[in-house]
Amino acid sequence: MSATKADPNNSESFDVIIVGAGISGINCAYRLMKQQPDASFVILDGRDSIGGVWDQFRYPGVRSDSQIYTYGLAWHRWPFTKPIAQGSEIMEYLHDAVSKYHIDDHVRFQHKVSRVDWSSQRQEWGVTADGQGQHRRYLARWIIIGTGYVDYESPLAPDIPGLDKFKGRIVHPQLWPQNFYYAGQRLALIGSGATAVSLLPAIAKEAGHVTMIQRSPTYVAARPCQDDDTLTWLPLAIPMWFGTVSPGPRQRKLPANVPVDPHFTPRYDPWRQRLCLDPNGAFYQAFHRPNVRLITGDIDTVTEHGIRMRSGETVESDVIVTATGHRMVLGGSIEIQVDGKQRAWGGRFAWNGCMLDGVPNMMFMLGYTNNSWTVGADNTAMYLVRLMSYMKRQGAMSVVPRVPEAVAAHGTRSIWQLESTYVREAERRLPVCGNTGPWKPKNRPPIDWLYARWGNITADLDFSM
């Protein structure tokens, strides 16, 4: 592997450029340091801190939605003793990890990557990053996209009639205002997913009144969240697929005035949308509070001072919180060009859930819908270091996936196998999967984990010397 250097045009060159300093990028950096120690790399991030979504999301009650022994990093011990982690604890943990292993030495903040362009002639990527009013140019053999799937700048715009008429304050959890004072106010919380389930117990403690409005119910599994000292030594990101939670009985956790039907009888099968975890039943317990109400139904319109349901029921509000989902985007809206031709994400086949058909030397990090994000991202990091070792032995400079005609002819499947609103809205922008071989969706954590470490990594790949 080559050392860091500068070309005649003053473009720094690396073996690997990682885009994003969240969990995916941090984990990939560690794998490179330990398993490709001769490879030069840098992490470019458009923000001014590590953490990705955990630095972005600062709404009350923000926490992990999966147990930390699958969400944490396999190589860094989790220091706290509860299996569900608060956002602040995750940030503390990540800062400790990058400091301990000196990963922070490789991070460059306020470097928002806007474009990457591959040259087959030079067998390398050109990377354009914008920051502090300047354009910076880098070169790399490999590009790793570790930006997650959330559009940081533009949350999903909720399709709520009359929202622009509201005279009060409208807040999206993704852009929660700093020092937002809502004590004693009337809040209407619109949504039923993981964000709403986390938010409700937290804001109910200070708000004058909270009405949660959901169009359709979600599966919410209440599970104990007790101190457990074993978590401080457990190897964290082992794929604990056998511990996946499932929906359980809800009747005993709800007050008499909140019936299971219709409020907690989803219209879909479990895992069609992501199941929400409720530590110690805090979400269900919130409905026992006199200042919390639940409405299930369709919104007719937002008025100047609240919300009118199609049932005729009204919700007077000072604040509307739109926990209606994120805008899903892969690659952080980075423009991709290969030999001067643009390569769109939408509709392009994904090889092993981490490389795009026809795009050389580029990987993207994607987690699971039925397990934690970190397990899937770590699998991709293992594909990377294994491919780099193989290519070094073979003398290859680049590798590109090529989807066989037979695979393409047998139809496609969604790469993100949920039916949530934010997924349907993003479908046309996402890559697709096939039905056979390395083009199948990655939805079997134990098999994927084994395959990423010892399986065939050359199937349907073309190598160039």
UniProtKB/TrEMBL annotation:
This is Cyclohexanone monooxygenase. It comes from the Eukaryota. The lineage of its organism: Eukaryota, Fungi, Dikarya, Ascomycota, Pezizomycotina. Keywords: Monooxygenase, Oxidoreductase. Its cofactor is FAD. It comes from Apiospora phragmitis. GO terms for molecular function: monooxygenase activity.
